[in-house]
Amino acid sequence: MTRLVVCICILVNTISLEAKAVRFRAMWRDDPATSMVIGWDQVSGSTPMIHYDEVDNGLKAEAYRIKRKPDQVVVARGLNNHFARLTGLKPNTLYYFLIKDSEGLSRRYSFRTAPNVPTERLSFISGGDSRNNREARISANTLVSKIRPTFVLFNGDMTATDTGPEWALWLDDWQYTIGSDGRIFPVVVARGNHELDNRSLQEVFDIPYPEAYYALSFGGNLLRLLTLNTMGASGGDQKTWLERELAGAKGFIWRFAQYHHAMRPHTIGKSERDDLVQNWAPLFLYHQVQLAMESDSHVAKWTYPIRVSREHGSAENFIRDDERGTVYIGEGCWGAPLRASDDNKKWTRNSGSFNHFNLVYVDQEKVEIRAVVTDQAQGVQESKSPFILPVGIKLWEPSNGNVLTILNKKANPLQTAAGNHPPVLALSPAEAAESANNDKEWAKLAACSVDPFSNEVNIPFILPKAGEAQICVYNTLKKEVDKQVFASLPAGKNTKKLNLNQLNAGRYLIVVRSGGQSVVFYQFVR
Hints:
The protein is of the alpha+beta class. It is 16% helix and 33% strand. It has 3 domains: 2-64 and 83-112, Immunoglobulins (Immunoglobulin-like), CATH 2.60.40; 122-407, Metallo-dependent phosphatases (Purple Acid Phosphatase, chain A, domain 2); 429-525, Sandwich (Immunoglobulin-like).
């Protein structure tokens, strides 16, 4: 009898040691290099506390140097979500943590903060649409744990109907993304059409942005990532925000965007998003967004670099432009029902229909994109580095190569993204210096916006008195490349339109002269 009592006591004590914190996830509200949000569902127990440190203290909670209470508790959709917003962390540093509550301890987990210098390479996974097929979803999630990226981008449509039971299952399945050593990989989320409102992202992922569009910086000035909301108005406040954010991101080497609906879906059954083309694509061109990640259509696609245009050779308001174009990838196959890739364009590089996500490597000189086929995770070995493909992993193998590369034009001035066009002629050192100085000075001038569809720019000016006006266009080497004369203009406000089809890509200066005097100066980027 004594032995039985002892065994029962041991069993009770063992059970009580397990904390009732489950469904873990990691996110960012602030600087990815110095902060992290740890979220979990507290299914029972009380007074949970997160204990964390740079040292792995196993399950010895009190040995961890720092502990804190959750900063936010959100009871919604049948979940008791707790969020600990950790700040003041060291960049590119591995932290270990566990949750201790009134019922015991969780498993020991870990996370790594992002680098804060551009010399450190980034690895991330991008995909979306996981809402229906749990088997496919779990397989894709398991491959995340094998690849071990810096972070994951999820472009929306996590669940089918945004209900509590579905979210519980989705978060249960998300645990398959956790490495065998307890490593949790942060997720950056965008809203899809199956998230019924923006609150879903706030309640489940603790995003601090009610409108569900926001931006994060990685690697110092290596990457500015913009998350957009295709379920909100693409114009108005969101367009104003996007333009302001992109204007402020000029100092970044790379500018990427993620969002849910594809501008030009690659399946016939999906509607075109002309509003996105009208409101966002011109800004992607003007501010040189190099990569856009889309979902929703449940197909696979890579495009060549493209820009908005209605000129000869364009298709569906886009034309291939290896120098200034944006590469679009997607379109969401993380477990949602697959559709036929039956709507290719002239500028489509590759398309298909299979479960996948994109694996993206980013450094200062280039971006490398691979599509990982996610149907089979069994037998794939866990990688020891986010930049070494796991043994056994399967990649998409289109006929023109399984790696889509985007080159940093500033780092590779004589190369093009596609690699099949003649190189750009290099300037002499003196010409390059003069061009850079002029370009820097002219950038301080008021900008004229180029209409990407018509390739026209409006030039407003005020004449002190009636008479002739000359509009002269100069390149950054101070060479006049265009001149138009307008006779008998009235005094006061005037506006003239210039067609820019004859100009090459680059920055230009516009000078309006009248009566031998310069009236106004502008600059624009073609």
